[in-house]
C-alpha cells in the first residue's frame, strides 16, 4: 500500500505508475474477509542487512510468520509472486500462494510461458 504523503520524510518513495505518486510504502498482511490487519511493515529505504534478508521473498516470509501452519492462502501481487516462494511457503509453512506471475521472470518453466492467455494452476 502506498500511503500518500508529500511532506519531508527520508523514506518517502516515488512510484510513477500510481495516481498519487509520492508517499510512504507500507507492506501489510491482512485478512480478506474481516479486513483486519495482522502485520505491517514500513519500507524505510535501503538498510545494512544482508541481501537475502532484504529480498522480496524474505519480506513475504517475515509478514506471514503469524500464519505458519494454518493452511491458509496468501495472495500477492506480481512483484512478490514467484515459484520459489510458493514452494517454500507450501513445504515449510503449509500455506498456499496465489498471484500474478510475469512471464519474463527467472526460473519460470517453458510450459508456463506458452499459455497464450490461459490461466495455469500449479
From TrEMBL:
Domain of life: Eukaryota
InterPro entries: PGBD
Chain ranges of the PiggyBac transposable element-derived protein domain: 2-116
Pfam families (alphabetical): DDE_Tnp_1_7
Protein name stated in the entry: PiggyBac transposable element-derived protein domain-containing protein
The species this protein was found in: Periplaneta americana (American cockroach)
Amino acid at each position: 500500500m502506498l500511503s500518500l504523503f508529500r511532506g519531508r520524510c527520508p523514506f518517502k518513495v516515488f512510484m510513477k505508475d500510481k495516481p498519487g505518486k509520492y508517499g510512504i510504502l507500507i507492506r501489510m498482511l491482512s485478512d480478506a474477509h474481516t479486513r483486519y490487519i495482522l502485520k505491517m511493515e514500513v519500507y524505510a529505504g535501503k538498510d545494512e542487512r544482508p541481501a537475502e534478508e532484504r529480498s522480496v521473498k524474505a519480506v513475504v516470509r517475515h509478514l506471514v510468520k503469524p500464519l505458519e501452519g494454518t493452511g491458509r492462502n496468501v495472495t500477492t501481487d506480481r512483484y512478490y509472486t514467484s515459484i520459489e516462494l510458493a514452494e517454500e511457503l507450501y513445504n515449510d509453512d503449509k500455506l498456499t500462494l496465489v498471484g500474478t506471475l510475469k512471464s519474463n521472470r527467472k526460473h519460470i518453466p517453458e510450459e508456463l510461458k506458452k499459455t497464450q492467455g490461459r490461466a495455469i494452476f500449479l
